[in-house]
Specification:
The structure is a homodimer. The first copy, chain A, is α/β, with parallel strands linked by helices and about 475 residues long. Chain A is built from 17 helices and 20 strands. The first copy, chain A, is about 45% helix and about 15% strand. In chain A, strand 9, helix 6 and strand 10 form a beta-alpha-beta unit. In chain A, helix 6 runs parallel beside helix 7.
């Protein structure tokens, strides 16, 4: 296992922590949800209108009760995952409104796309968890689309999944519907089965929707991933240390609220902040600074003993070209090797979160597979050094026909399913296929090979009844 | 600065070292150059025919005299580089016979390509050193092509460069020609101005050509990069620990020879070993195991206190597609973050070393630029956290028009020259250019903008005279 990268010293971590404490105590942070203000005030946090002034002692108390590791339950117990420790849990892209196809054409995402992504997650050897809002289905009413997505998460896939956090009502619906799988929401009160993506609105604000969703998820014992996307030089300071101090203040405020609602409620720390390209004013998620911020953020989360979120296969490229490969690999590699426990946007994202792509999903899955291979130990033992074999082969001979080679080659080497490893002549003869084209075929194969996991008909009925009543 | 990744424990390093000692003492290693055997024997190493049996005490003595850091001089002193310590020196691809163009067509490489690569290195903000055999020019006689390449290295570029190591004679010619820049080879005796890429022939052999070149470079105070490319499961053990032990034995044998020839001769430790794809029997340089071996090899080199070589922008892709981006970034990122001091094949390679590509050169250069940015400190100081600005912006306001943003945005952010950071509509309006296409234009611009660095006419005359006499 890699010792992972270390960008900040202990002194740096303490300095950033102290700066965040000063921000929260002096400037305060706004929560536009009255119940959040009430909860803070009830626990002795100074409040003035929408703004609370959180002191270090409140943060410390919250950090004490927040778990460093917890299990996220799937409806198929074999698919349960553990968040925290040295575990790595991968989850697809989030929040895209569009689809980009193999020919770099763009179109609105629809519910069929969402279902296809559920099927890809279900058939993935690498992706552990299903998303929510992987794409925003344009063919469903905004008011009830989250119901369709939660339904799809439950019936098309049996892995753990994200709940909707677009509003307090969406959170309540997610909890009701997920609860049905376990016989009612009271049975998941002490059993996290979902995770909500909660984002502050930088600088120093939580919308009513986000704070309301956070409260519901915490209250029902479900996981809150407290994160944000701060744009250095736009919604946050231009210097990286300033950004790290400010985003830390925002995340700690949200985490404190979860623990005031329910001490011990599972929570994850982690941002996806990056820089703004000053030539275009555009978010640059393929920038190397994103990787630096990822590394520093994960270190900061570990400093607090919290499970850390990283993100992901990120790129500003508009299609699955070499740029997409370069940027996504840099971000994923850094995030994984920095020690992230949970990665959002692990696969699928194109065009700075604008769109998802099937080809990109499969390419990122390949990157994730390679990174998982690299996390396995080299395992230096006498048996594996195997001096006897080295001595028997000796000088100038070959290992290809050695019996040990046949024994170990399947387990020792990661075999890529889609990366080209043929010679140029063979590659040309087979039509000079670029990775993008191969992945289009691979996508079709995956969807064809998909089989729906069993689900009790009563559960499906309950879910359908709930949706009809709500969407009415 | 990242602490870099750590794949092996101290116990692992010692175990591998001991295994290598046992291999060298018991199996021995062949040198098919009689002078190498003589040198070993003269220093008390047991020799039997072509095989020497090197003991730990010989290795230890060599490691004592090998420098941990040294300067490599360029004909323009502003381009000098330091190898070792925490420095990172980047050098282009090596050994390709072909060129692959933007349309994935292949052709023989010619001398004009070689000169173009010299021009790209000269105009690079990222690549510190010129190569040798960046491509093997098909339009020059094999016997004298190295003379043309060394000439090109000297006159088209004023950065430090690789010498030829294809034979003892090529090494002698390189030393003579490089010497002319400094008034004669005796003036570079204590002043390394060149580096030779020396490879053992696994398992456990050094060809007459390589050993001869090594001896010449060491004797004249020039740098030997002692490396190899072992194919796990073909020319080396299938298990990674076995491969690491065996390749370490081979590298230590070569390093010992350099120090016997001239104690203190500059030397670099580092392999580019990887796995064999057992489905095709083909070298897989885009495999994640390459990155693991890179990390472990660099750790091993640091364990010995030697400057370490890593490699590079490696891929099995046959064209500049997403696969090329993914594999090259994974390998480069790992190698840089693992602590490599010198990176061969930093840019240009396609198709498992088959070919170089101008587009790939520029894409890899971009990856290297991003990695260099990531090596810069975040620099957490009170001034850079800048609580005053954070307090003055406060809650819900913006940083875009803050004076500090304008002051810092140029120095704080890495601005990519070629990566797309425009929105989809703009990108479509501008012709939906993929990275590959943009790099074709960028290449033409770079070549047009190139200006030849000054060189004294006497030096050029001397070089020409030497080549005519030799090639004549």
């Amino acid at each position: 296992m890699f010792a992972r990268m270390v960008l900040l010293s202990d002194k740096d971590l303490n300095k950033l922590h102290n700066a965040s404490m000063e921000i929260l105590a002096d400037v305060g942070i706004a929560f536009y949800e009255p119940e959040a203000i009430e909860i803070f005030a009830d626990h002795g946090v100074k409040a003035d209108g929408n703004v609370v002034y959180i002191e270090e002692r409140h943060i410390e108390k919250a950090l004490e009760s927040a778990p460093s590791e917890f299990k996220l339950h799937a409806r198929n117990p074999e698919q349960n995952v553990t968040i925290g420790g040295d575990n790595l849990v991968l989850c697809p892209g989030y929040g895209a409104s569009f689809m980009i196809d193999a020919h770099c054409e763009i179109r609105n995402a629809i519910m069929d796309d969402y279902v296809n992504f559920c099927k890809l997650v279900q058939t993935s050897q690498t992706i552990d968890m299903n998303g929510c809002l992987m794409v925003d289905p344009n063919d469903r009413p905004a008011k009830s689309a989250h119901l369709d997505m939660i339904y799809a998460n439950i019936v098309w896939c049996d892995k753990p999944f994200l709940g909707s956090s677009i509003s307090r009502q969406a959170a309540k619906d997610s909890i009701e519907m997920a609860g049905m799988v376990w016989g009612g929401k009271k049975y998941i009160q002490e059993k996290p089965v979902m995770m909500a993506i909660i984002s502050s609105l930088s600088p120093l604000q939580y919308s009513a929707e986000m704070a309301g969703a956070l409260i519901e998820y915490a209250r029902h014992g479900q996981t809150n991933m407290i994160g944000l996307l701060m744009m250095a030089g736009a919604t946050g300071p231009v210097t990286l240390p300033g950004l790290l101090a400010l985003q830390n203040a925002e995340m700690l405020a949200g985490i404190t609220l979860t623990q005031l609602v329910k001490p011990g409620a599972p929570v994850i720390y982690g941002s996806t902040s990056t820089v703004t390209d000053m030539r275009t004013g555009k978010l640059a998620i393929g920038a190397p600074e994103l990787s630096m911020i990822q590394n520093a953020t994960i270190q900061m989360g570990k400093f607090y003993g919290l499970p850390c979120r990283g993100s992901g296969g990120l790129t500003d490229a508009q299609c699955t070209d070499m740029q997409a490969g370069i940027e996504s690999t840099l971000a994923l590699n850094t995030t994984v090797m920095s020690g992230a426990n949970f990665i959002l946007h692990a696969c699928g994202i194109l065009g700075s979160y604008l769109a998802m792509s099937y080809q990109k999903f499969l390419a990122d899955e390949e990157i994730c597979g390679m990174l998982r291979r690299m996390l396995k130990s080299i395992d230096v033992t006498d048996e594996r050094i195997d001096l006897d074999s080295i001595k028997s082969v000796g000088i100038g001979k070959e290992y290809l026909t050695h019996p040990k080679t046949l024994t170990h080659c399947r387990s020792e080497f990661y075999l890529s399913g889609t990366m080209s490893r043929v010679d140029f002549a063979t590659w040309r003869k087979k039509g000079k296929m670029q990775l993008n084209e191969k992945l289009t075929k691979a996508f079709q194969k995956r969807i064809e090979a998909y089989t729906q996991p069993d689900i009790a008909p009563e559960i499906a009925d309950d879910l359908n009844r709930y949706i009809r009543a709500k969407a009415g």
